[in-house]
Amino acid sequence: MRNREEGVATTRVVGKRVLLALASLVVAPILGVWAGASMHNPPGNGPGGWQVVVGVGVPALFASAAAVVAGVGRAEVASWTIASLAATGGLLLLLVWFVQTYIPT
Questions:
Q1: Second label for 81, Cα 20 to 30 Å away, from 28, 33, 41, 61?
Q2: For 11-32, how does the pLDDT look when each residue is reduced to its tens digit (9 = 90+)?
């Protein structure tokens, strides 16, 4: 009986980490890019200061909140937050490449 209870507990921990990975590496970067892109763009080239703050802050806060809800330690919260920011940067690079390559100007 004890092995079965340990298996259920292990499954719950793994399930929480899978949802945490999905939230940190897929949902948070998309939310960050969407939130930054939905703001008013200032004149000139490049994003405005608040677009950068929101584009970085939203994924960091979302990933941190998801990690806290999953009940992981502080070091893992920091790791998931950094991974979320790296995924956001990768998504931005992919979007810039796509726009420059496939959208005629």
A1: 41
A2: 677 888 999 999 999 999 999 9
pTM (whole model) above 0.85: no
CA distances 47 to 10, 50, 58, 79, Å, are 44, 8, 16, 27
| C-alpha to C-alpha distance for 90 and 24, rounded to whole angstroms | 13
Inter-residue long-range contacts of 30-33, CB under 8 Å, 24+ positions, other chains counted = 30/91, 31/58, 31/59, 31/62, 32/56, 32/57, 32/58, 32/59, 32/62, 32/88, 33/88, 33/91, 33/92, 33/95
CA distance 4 to 33: 43
